[in-house]
Amino acid sequence: MKSITSHANPVVKKIKSLAQKKYRDEYGLFLVEGERDVRGMLDAGWEVETLAFTCHPERSEGSRVPPPEILRYAQDDNAIEVMPGIMQRMTGRDNAQDVLGVFRHKWHDLPKKDGVFIALDGVRDPGNLGTVIRTADAAGARGVILIGNTCDPWSPECIRATMGSIARVPLMRADASGFIAWKKSWPGRVIGTHLKGAEDYRRLSYAPPLAIVMGSEQSGLSPDIAAACDQLARIPMVGGAESLNLAVSAGIMLYEAVRGKI
Ligand code: SAM
Fold first, then answer.
1. Whose CA is nearest to atom 23 of ligand 1?
2. How many CA atoms does the CB half-sphere of 241 hold within 13 Å?
3. Measured by CB atoms within 10 angstroms of the end CB, which terminus of the chain is less buried, N or C?
4. What value does the mean pLDDT take over residues 130-145?
5. Does position 65 have pLDDT exceeding 70, yes or no?
6. Residue 237, ligand 1, Cβ within 6 A
């Protein structure tokens, strides 16, 4: 493991640059912070570019060693040890965690098999996207499909909001026409969620294969995607709220889809 002491080191600068989308896209990399989440990524077989550990020389010998479960993935050329100030700089956080992993983006093909999937049409808020990925993991969904122009799933805000579930939930993507073309060849059904949906979500069948489609925070389901859905479901609201939060409604739908099965 190399020890890095300079803020100007190219590895430090590269990791710091991953806060910006243009560099995440250019390098195809993203950050995962914290021992638990980094270990989850490694155990799930993600390819790691760099592992960074904070060095605490003031601590006793035993508590200084990086966690053994992660250390076994560290080789001379992919592991670095840095002082707390450098970890703060790399993560942009005053309270940076002691373990950081740099991983490669991974996209999967659109589904061909059985299971429940959730699709998000133009999701904008990385916190919502991360929460949906986390909920999909909890409910046993087989993946999250990003439709059209969405926020970046590899942003630190989204990755943090997944609380480690990014390690286990396959991500797929398509533009609107690609999603509609895929839908025609897929044997499953597609249920869209819409404020003006004709069906009460409690009255639908959720037999897999199934994709549940959520609209964007601002404008809901785009007309083309809504028209491609087999059914449009509405979650009844009795108060004065105009709509439910995207991630909350995704949670309601996902748990309805797996009710009695988990
Ligand atoms: N102004 C948007 C609209 O007109 O659709 C509100 C979008 S809402 C914040 C985000 C997404 O959550 C919606 O597109 C839909 O997928 C889902 N959603 C929210 N409330 C819902 C409800 N009561 N019934 C069905 N879906 C809902």
1. 235
2. 9
3. C
4. 98
5. no
6. yes
**Is pTM beyond 0.85 here?**
yes
The CA 247 to ligand 1 mean position distance, Å, reads 10
Residue 243 in contact with ligand 1 by CB distance below 6 A: yes
Could you tell me if 117 and 147 are in contact, meaning their C-beta atoms sit under 8 angstroms apart?
Answer: no
**pLDDT over threshold 70, residue 63:** no
Rounded to an integer, the average pLDDT of 69-88 is 89
DSSP-assigned states of every residue in 80-137? EEE-HHHHHHHHT-TT--SEEEEEE---BPPP-SSSEEEEEES---HHHHHHHHHHHH
Torsion of CA 128, 131, 133, 134, to 10 degrees: 180
Give residue 173's pLDDT.
98
Structural tokens at position 9: 């080191």
Residue 73 has pLDDT above 90, yes or no: no
Query: What span, in angstroms and rounded, lies between the C-alpha atoms of 173 and 71?
Result: 33
Distance from the CA of 62 to the center of ligand 1, in angstroms? 52
pLDDT at residue 68, rounded to an integer? 82
